[in-house]
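WARN retry 2 of 3 for item q-0093 after timeout on previous attempt; input resubmitted unchanged.
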Amino acid sequence: MKNSFLLLFILITASSLSGIENEYVNKDVLFSFRYPENYRFYENIVNYPPNTGSYVIDVYVRKIDDFKPNNPYGPVNIKKSILNLYKSLNSGEINNEIFTGVKPEVIQIDKINAFTFFKFTRGYADDVIFSRTMIFFNNGYYIGISLYADSFKKKIIRKMPQYFVDANSDYPGWKFDREFNGSIEENPVFVNFIRALENKNGSLEAQEWYESFNKIVKSIRFTEIKEYKTAVKFYKPAIDAAQFFESPGLNGKLIRSLARSEKLELVETGKADAIEGKNGFWISVKTEDGEKGWAFDGHLEEIK
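OK item q-0093 returned
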């Protein structure tokens, strides 16, 4: 019996020293990764509790085909931007239109390219956040993995006051270089903060956040790598004499009117528009004869 208790004690002690980990497995995306057991984990949650008392891992998984073109927060075509990011990552570059972050770079995990960046603010100096994010694609899915240290924000700020103003107050902010003319994400204060972490000169809380993200990235495993194949969509006119243009918009040159019997293959989705009170998008389509042009999808219906 004593030997059994001794063995149990040794196992518990070894587990504590090595760090107990959980494993996240997604059979649809065909990948997995490991993360510390005491971290809070959320999947596809828009708003998690802000002060969890722990580091937070947020995983967002979505089929590429489920993204919609419309964006309630601005004019960017979300679906098109996601596809552009996917294509650019495949070539080892970043064509990013929707994500803003510090030190964006492409890293390779197995044979898949991923896009990583830091996020330290939502746009103004006294809104301090600490997040690291990685985005990649597999098997037709978009995957975003973020690690947040917001629960330790006060400790990080007070232990690294050289990067902040009013570090000991309730409303600290980043110590921006006011003479710097670049974008907010490129401000030297962020560059110097990251350099401190790279050189292991950060606070204990900041270093754990920084290094844990690196460990999560290294733990990622793919059971299979599959490229995304665009789902082909077809449309037909929903009104008589739907118009077919050379370019998107009513100001474009009219090619002709479409017959209701015509089958149109979707090539790409363009800009949003509203015609006669109907909201929609201009889409590039191809007829069965190979003729290409633009039509307003508010005047079309998808062929299921």
